[in-house]
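Quick one from the shared queue. A colleague (R.T.) flagged Cell cycle protein GpsB as missing a structural entry in our internal table.

Convert sequence to structure tokens.
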Amino acid sequence: MNANRIQLTGKDILEKEFKTAMRGYNQEEVDEFLDTVIQDYEAFQQDIEKLRQENERLRKQSDQTRSRSSAPNHQVNYDILKRVSNLEKAVFGKKYDDSE
């Protein structure tokens, strides 16, 4: 939802004045209805703001995850190879060490 398309605020609705006519609508009924509209409108605005914040939080979290996964892990690979080598030496003993 684009903020530029929103034409009314809760305050605009609250302060709206209608002209009265001889056979017009019941003013109290219109006011009660507008009060309900204002409450709904403000609730929607709060929901939109919460969703925007959650969306931003998830974007940041996603960016952090991407940056972590794209980071080089050469050191990790070296450590794993070193551990495998030490494990092979421990399992196969002197025989494996001499074959190198």
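The radius of gyration is 34 Å.
The chain has a mean pLDDT of 80.
Added to the table.
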